[in-house]
Amino acid sequence: MFDLERWQEIFETIRKNKLRTFLTGLSVASGIFILVILLGFGQGMRNGIAHEFEQDASTSVWVWPGVTSKEFKGLNPGRRIQLRNENYSKWNEQNTARIEYNSARIFVRDVSVTYGNEALVYGVRGVHEDFQFIENSRVSEGRFISYSDLVNTSKVIVIGNKIKKDVFGHLDSPIGEYVDISGIPFKIVGVFKEQREREEETLYIPLTTAQRVFNGGDRISNMSYTLPMAENFDQAVAQAVVFKDELKEYLSQVHTVHPEDDSALEVWSALEEAKRYYSLTGNIKFFFWFVGICTIIAGVVGVSNIMLIVVKERTREIGIRKALGAKPWSIIGMILHEAVFITAFSGFLGLIFSMLLLELIGPHVEVDYIMNPSVDLNVALTTVFVLVLSGTVAGFFPAWRAANVQVITALRDE
Amino acid sequence: MIEIKDLHKSYQMGSNSLHVLKGIDFNVEAGELVAIMGSSGSGKSTLLNILGMLDVADSGEYLLDGLPIKNLNETKAANYRNKFLGFIFQSFNLINYKTALENVALPLYYQGVGRKERQEKALKYLEQVGLKEWSHHLPSELSGGQKQRVAVARAMAAEPKVLLADELTGALDSTTSYEIMDLIQKINDLGNTILVVTHEDDIAHMCKRIVHLKDGVIVEDKKIEQVRASQYVQ
Q1: What digits encode the pLDDT tens for the residues A224-250?
Q2: Is residue B5 part of a domain?
Q3: Cβ distance B88 to A324 under 8 Å?
C-alpha cells in the first residue's frame, strides 16, 4: 500500500489511460451522487412531515361533539350532542393527575365585531387560560386570558398577530385599544402568534364572559387537553389512547350515546395521528433506502462490469508483464490497487459534490412536506466504503484469473 | 548454459493427443548464438516456450546454468524469468501506453531496482540499440525496426543469462531484419547466449549454429560459418 514505486506505476497507468479512468470514476461518482441525493430527500420528507406536525401541542386531545347515528336506549339517531360545563369540570376533577393543561372552548356565533367604524370578520372563541399551551400559541405582546379574567368574567380580548397587522397596523401596539363585540367593548390585553397565519385570525375572550354575555348558558363547543410527556413515544401514545378511550366512554355514558357511535362524539388525539405520520415517514424512509440500495447495486454492477472490461483489455499487457518476470500477486495487487484508488477517489468526489449540493440548496427547499433535505455523513461514508469494497471484490476475480492465465495465451490475445 | 534431456510435450486437442516434442536432447554453451529452425508445426515454438518457462514439459530434464527447472510454481517461474531470461517476440509486445524508456525499464521494476537507477540503465541500453533520442516516444510513434530495437533493449536490460527470440524478424522487411540481426550479433559478440527461433534461412545463417527440428525431433544440429549481417547494413 505504501510502496512508492507501486504508486508511481499506478499514477502513470492512470495518467496514460484517462478515458478508462474517467469512465470508471464517473460510474462510481454518479452512483454515490444519486444515492446521497435520494437519501437526502428522504430525510427532507421526514423533516417536512415532522414540521407540519409541530403546530399543535404534540400530546393534545380534543373532543368534538356531533350528531348521533345509532339508536340507543330508546333514543332516536340524529340527536345533536351538546357538551356542558359540568362534563368538563367533572372529568377534570377525576383526572387531574393525567392532565397537563386543559381548556374548554366555545364558538361565539351571531355577533358582530367592530373596531371604530371598521367591521372585523374574525371568529370569536371563549377559552380558558391554558388554551394557549394546547394550541401552542406564543404570546408576542401583553398577556393571554388569565384565571382572574375567567373568575371576574372580565371583558378582555386577545388578538392574533395577523389581526394586529391588518387592523392595528397604524398603531405601535394594539394593547389597550377597545374592540366592540355586539356593542360591548372589550379591551385588548395581548397578541398571540401561531405557526400559520391562518390560525392568527382569531379573537380569544374568557370562556365565562362568552357564556354569560352572549347567552351561552353552560354550553361549550369543545374540550381540549394536553397530557404530560411520557418517557418515550410509544408510552405516550399508549397513555393518550387510554385517556381518549376513557374520556369517550365517560361522555357517551353522560349523554346516553351508543358506545360505538363514532359520529356523536369524536375524540381526537394528536399523538395517535403522529404515530400514523411517523409510521408513514418510516415507510418513506424504507422506500428511499430500498431505492438507494438498488442504486448501490446498480453501481456495484457497473463498477464490476468496468473492472471486468479493464482486466480483459489488459490481458496482453499482463502477459507481457509476466514474461518480464511479474509475479501473479504483483499483477493482482497492481490492478486492485488501481481499482481501489479510482473508486475511492471518485466515490469521495461524488460524495462531496452531492453533500455540497444538499448543503447549498437544502435550506432553500420549502415545498410542502419536504424541508431541509440532508444526509447523515456516516451513512454516506458507509455507502462509499461499500462501493469501494464491492469494486475491489468485483475486480479481484478477473484480476486473479488474468494473473494466472498462461503467458503464451495472454500474449496471443488481441 | 542450457541442458535438455529427453524432453517430451504433448497437447490435448479434444480427444486426440498431439505429440509435439518427441524426446529432445540439446545443449547450449555460454556465448553461443543458436538458430532453431523448422517448418510450422515442427515444435520449435513449443521448445522455446518451455525454455522460456512459459510452458511446462511433460517429461524430461531441463537445466538452466546448472539449475533444474522443474515443478515451478507461478511465483518462482516469474522470478527465474525475470533474472535469467530475456524475451524478444515477433510482435514486439511493448506496452503501448508506456514510452520506449519505460518499456525498457519495466523488467528492472520487477527486479526491485530503484526508479532512478532503472531509468539510467534503461537509457544505457536504449543507447546501445541506437535509440537514445527516441526514449520518450510511445511505441505507436516508432517504426517496426525501432520497436524491435526497444524490445531487444528491454530483453537486455534485465541482464539475463539467455536471450530467447521468437521469429524476431518475422514482422520486419529484410533490410530492417538485417539491422536487427546485426544488433543481435553484436550483443552475442559481447558474450551473451542467444537462441533464435526462425524459419528464414538467411537469418539462421547469421547464427553460429543451426538446430533443425522436424516433427518434434532434432534432425540436424550443425555448427556453421557465421554470415555477418553488417555487410548488408549501410
Answers
A1: 998 887 777 777 788 888 888 898 889
A2: no
A3: no
CATH number at residue B176: 3.40.50.300
A191: left (phi over 0), alpha (psi -120 to 50) or beta: beta
E strand spans, A7-134: 60-65, 83-84, 101-108, 113-115, 118-120, 123-127
CB B180 within 8 A of CB B168: yes
Residue B190 maps to a domain = yes
ipTM (interface pTM): 0.88
C-alpha A314, offset from chain centre? 51
The number of domains in chain B is 1
pLDDT in tens, A361-388: 877 776 766 777 777 778 778 877 887 8
CB nearest to A326's CB, from B78, B83, B89? B78
Residues in B touching A408 (Cβ below 8 Å)? 49, 54-55
* Residues of chain B neighbouring A319 (CB-CB closer than 8 A): 93
Residue B225 lies in a domain: yes
What is the Cβ-side half-sphere exposure of residue A65, based on CA atoms within 13 angstroms? 23
Residue B103 grid cell: 518499456
**Which residue range forms the structural domain that includes residue B193?**
31-56+75-232
Contact A325 B82 (CB under 8 A): yes
Is the entire prediction scored with pTM above 0.80?
A: no
Task: Identify which of B82, B89, B97 has the shortest CB distance to residue A16.
Answer: B97
CB B194 within 8 A of CB B188: yes
Does B159 lie at the interface with A, CB-CB under 8 angstroms? no
Name the residue facing B75 among A324, A327, A411 (closest C-beta).
A327
